[in-house]
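Researcher: I'm preparing a figure for a lab meeting and need a structural model of a single chain. I don't have an experimental structure, so a prediction will have to do for now. The sequence is pasted below. Please return the structure as tokens so I can convert it later.
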Amino acid sequence: MLNHDVLIMNGYGKHKAGHKQYADCMYQKPFWVNQQGDFVSNSDPTRYKKAFYLNIYHYPAWPEHNLAESWSSDMRCYSKTHSWDIELMHEKNHALGEIEEFYKAQYKANDCIPDLHNND
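Model: Understood. Here is the structure written out token by token.
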């Protein structure tokens, strides 16, 4: 189940929502791959590359418009020639692990390469 505490406990940093209208905050976490493209939990930048950042946005309830609290997530994917975003809307009862696994699967299925702008 998504909530602020679960995101912080799982290594997400809390940030301003930025470009997402109506979101009150964003949580962000990098995902790392080794040279073979397998996901690793270690974040040693001398050995591994950031595959992507997973961004999770919180939208507070808006009772005067009959809108309940909600969440969305996105990641930017890279190939050698272009980039694109994958974005999902979530109900509160989605498990964080399921969301993370979905994005990892998308990274693999779309034959993505590590983040072009965040691997020095």
